[in-house]
Write a structure and sequence with these properties.
The protein is α+β, with helices and mostly antiparallel strands. Helix content is about 45%, strand content about 15%. The chain is built from ten helices and nine strands. The strands form two sheets. A six-stranded antiparallel sheet has the order 1-2-8-3-6-9. Strands 5-4-7 form a three-stranded antiparallel sheet. α4 crosses α5 and α4 crosses α6. The radius of gyration is 20 Å and the shape is globular.
C-alpha cells in the first residue's frame, strides 16, 4: 500500500517475503524506514555486518545504511520521506535528532514486550485501514499514525537503553551531538569542533558522555568516519585516494593508518577482500 501526495510526500506499508525483498534495498533520497520482523528466519547484512533478527523485533534504518538481504522469510516494511513527515519540525525525541534516527552509525533494534507489542499491533492495524482511505484527511491521519508508531518505539527503545528520564537535558545534548556528527563528520574531526557548535566546552561534552556510560565523543566521531570509509570501500567505485580526500584526511598515508589501526587491515586489502566476496564461485 502506497501513498504519494501532491508535494512529493511518500509513504508505503508493505508485507515483505523472499519474492519482493528487493524493496528493502530500494531507498529514495531522504527516506527513512522501519522493519518489523514476523519470523526468526530473517537475516540482513547492514554496512557489511550480518544480523539475524527475531520475531517481533523492529529495526529503524536511514537512507545512509547499505542493506543486503541474506535470507528473507516474512517481515513488514514501513517507508516514508521527509516531505511526508517533516521530522525536523516535530518533537525532538521522534525527529531525526531522536534516538531512532539520529545517525547512520547506530542500528536501533527495538524489542517490545507482550503488552507493548499488543499496542503496536493495534496502531499498525489502524494505519493499514487508513491506507485504504481516499479522502482529504488521509495525509493528516497517516501522519498521526506514523507519529504514534515512532513515539511507541522511542519509549520502548529508551527503556532498553535504560535512559534516565530525569536527565533529559543530557540526552537532548547527546542527540544534538549525534546529529551534528552526521552532518559534519567529513570535515570536522575534533571534539572541540562540535563543542563549539553546541556552545559548551569540550570537557563538558565529554562529561555528558560519561554520565550515561557511553563511548567518548572522539570515539563516536572516529567510528562514524570509519563506517563511511567501510561503506565507500565496499560499495563505491572511488579510488582509495578519493575516499581519503572525501573523508577529510590530509593524505593517503593518514587515511591508511587510521583505517588499519581501527580495522586491523589496510584499506587496499579490505577493498580487495570485499571484491573477492562478490565474485561468483
Amino acid at each position: 500500500m502506497r501513498y504519494e501526495g501532491p508535494n512529493q510526500e511518500y509513504f508505503e506499508v508493505v508485507n515483505i517475503t523472499s519474492e519482493n525483498c528487493y524493496l528493502i534495498k530500494a531507498s529514495r533520497n531522504s527516506e527513512l524506514s522501519m522493519l518489523w520482523f514476523d519470523s526468526d528466519q530473517n537475516r540482513l547484512k547492514i554496512d557489511g555486518e550480518e544480523h539475524a533478527f527475531k520475531t517481533n523485533e523492529l529495526l529503524c534504518l536511514t537512507e545512509f545504511h547499505k542493506v543486503e538481504t541474506v535470507n528473507i522469510d516474512k517481515l513488514r516494511l514501513l517507508k516514508f520521506n521527509k516531505p511526508f513527515y517533516c521530522i525536523l519540525d516535530h518533537d525532538s525525541e521522534i525527529s531525526c535528532r531522536g534516538i531512532l534516527y539520529f545517525g547512520a552509525a547506530t542500528l536501533p533494534i527495538i524489542k517490545p514486550n507482550a503488552k507493548e507489542l499488543d499496542t503496536l499491533e493495534t496502531v499498525w492495524k489502524m494505519l493499514c485501514i487508513e491506507m485504504e482511505s481516499r479522502d482529504n484527511l488521509q495525509l493528516e491521519m497517516l501522519q498521526m499514525m506514523l507519529k504514534r508508531m515512532l513515539i511507541l518505539c522511542t519509549r520502548i527503545y529508551k527503556e532498553q537503553l535504560q535512559y534516565d528520564i530525569s536527565g533529559g537535558e543530557y540526552v537532548d545534548s547527546l542527540r544534538a551531538f549525534n546529529y551534528l556528527v552526521e552532518q559534519h563528520f567529513k570535515e570536522k574531526h575534533k571534539v572541540a569542533d562540535y563543542a563549539d557548535l553546541l556552545h559548551i566546552s569540550p570537557k563538558s561534552l565529554s562529561n555528558l558522555f560519561k554520565k550515561i556510560g557511553s563511548k567518548t565523543p572522539l570515539q563516536y566521531i572516529q567510528e562514524r568516519r570509519l563506517l563511511e570509509a567501510r561503506r565507500l570501500l565496499k560499495y563505491s567505485e572511488r579510488s582509495i585516494s578519493e575516499i581519503a580526500f572525501h573523508l577529510g584526511f590530509s593524505d593517503l598515508q593518514a587515511f591508511s593508518r587510521f583505517f588499519k589501526n581501527n580495522e586491523g587491515i589496510s584499506p587496499n586489502d579490505f577493498k580487495n577482500s570485499e571484491q573477492k566476496e562478490k565474485l561468483p564461485t
